[in-house]
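[agent] plan:
  1. take the single chain provided in the ticket
  2. run structure prediction with default settings
  3. attach structure tokens to the ticket
  4. add a short note for the reviewer (M.T.)
[agent] executing step 1
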Amino acid sequence: MDINIKNVPEADAKRLAEQAEAEGLSQQEWIRQVLHNTANRMSPAEFARIKPSAPAISEADYMTFIKDVAARRRKVIEKLGASNRRR
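[agent] step 2 finished; step 3 output follows
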């Protein structure tokens, strides 16, 4: 599918260009990846629609979840050798 996006604010286009350059990608490839990542997340409206039906999570379960996410993130960063990288 070919998507043509018009009227992107200049500041947003500039920021996307900076991000693409930092990642060593063309602007087109960077925007393709950004759209892919965004499409894989729930929109706020989708989340709000399912949230009332989701059971509440306990504080302890939440902290366990956050620690697991942080551990997975550290593992990936170490694997990529990017532990000194700053954004």
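[agent] step 4 note for reviewer: The chain is about 65% helix and 0% strand.
[agent] ticket updated
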